[in-house]
Automatic annotation (TrEMBL):
Organism of origin: Chlamydomonas reinhardtii (Chlamydomonas smithii)
EC number: 1.1.1.100
Residue ranges the record marks as coiled coil: none
Top EC category: oxidoreductase
One annotated GO biological process: monocarboxylic acid metabolic process
Known catalytic reactions: a (3R)-hydroxyacyl-[ACP] + NADP(+) = a 3-oxoacyl-[ACP] + NADPH + H(+)
Signal peptide range in chain numbering: none
Pathway(s) annotated for this protein in UniProt: Lipid metabolism; fatty acid biosynthesis
Family classification: Belongs to the short-chain dehydrogenases/reductases (SDR) family.
Name this polypeptide is given: 3-oxoacyl-[acyl-carrier-protein] reductase
Length: 266
């Protein structure tokens, strides 16, 4: 059980945190002493309960869980309230949840467009809107949005995702300006292709659309523009988020920070 931590006494809500990048961020915040609220669809409730118990035991922090539907604004508001009620405060919001669908724009189903914009962008607005009053009252807060390098550059066959993540970048900058004198920072972390189920689930679809083998998708498509030729690790993204929430980050705001193996350096 960890006893210290630069975020001891703080409370965080991390959306989409039962796996992948979100789980890496949640574990990093917990290791820094932060009480954490996990969020995700209840696909395997016993597994989620074990995960929460393990994090609580290992780091000596409180762990809550929400299965809010991010396509429903009222559910998002309830999730934020539940976190604040559980911990008596809400200091950190990480808008991480995301979904993906790969298709040419003229074949992209309308419902997929709506869902991707809803989860990746609109839910970020609703969660931030609900969380900010808590932070304003405290005079301190951190909002970190998962932007993806697709908040900065584009890839074909991902029009909805690119549009949503570019929107997240603009939203991040706008809110940062609005709260710049309130002790609150708002930033986006922009990973390249990370070692997550969301990314690996795209491989087969991309292979089908492009008519190439799976191995070629990884080498020549996903990591073609990632100079390190390695997937970004969720733990590394978590460490960056902890820094943005820590005591030496008050002047970092309105930033979209690449953690993409050099992708956007080109």
């Amino acid at each position: 059980m960890s006893a210290g931590g630069i975020l001891r006494g703080k409370a965080a809500l991390i959306t989409g945190s039962t796996q992948g990048i979100g789980l890496g961020v949640l574990k990093a915040l917990a290791a820094a002493g932060c009480d954490v609220s996990m969020h995700g669809l209840p696909t395997d409730r016993p597994k989620i309960e074990r995960l929460c118990a393990d994090i609580q035991s290992q780091h000596g922090v409180r762990v809550a869980y929400s299965e809010a539907d991010l396509l429903k604004p009222a559910a998002i508001r309830d999730m934020v309230k539940q976190t604040a009620d559980s911990f008596g405060r809400l200091d950190i919001l990480v808008n991480n949840a995301g979904i993906q669908f790969v298709a040419p724009v003229h074949e992209l189903p309308d419902d997929k467009w709506d869902a991707i914009l809803g989860v990746c962008l609109t839910a970020t607005f609703h969660a931030t809107k609900a969380a900010l009053p808590h932070m304003l009252q405290q005079g301190w807060g951190r909002v970190v949005n998962t932007g993806s390098m697709h908040a900065l550059v584009a890839s074909p066959f991902k029009s909805a995702y690119n549009a949503a993540k570019h929107g997240v970048a603009g939203f991040t900058k706008t809110v940062a300006l609005e709260v710049a004198t309130k002790g609150i920072t708002v930033n986006a972390v922009c990973p390249g292709y990370a070692d997550t189920d969301l990314v690996r689930n795209q491989i087969a679809d991309t292979a089908r659309i492009r008519g190439i083998p799976v191995e070629a998708v990884i080498r020549d498509v996903m990591l073609a523009d990632q100079p390190t030729k390695q997937f970004v690790q969720p733990d590394d993204i978590g460490a960056l988020v902890v820094h943005l929430c820590g005591p030496n980050s008050s002047s970092i705001t309105g930033a979209c920070i690449s953690i993409d193996g050099g992708w956007t350096a080109r």
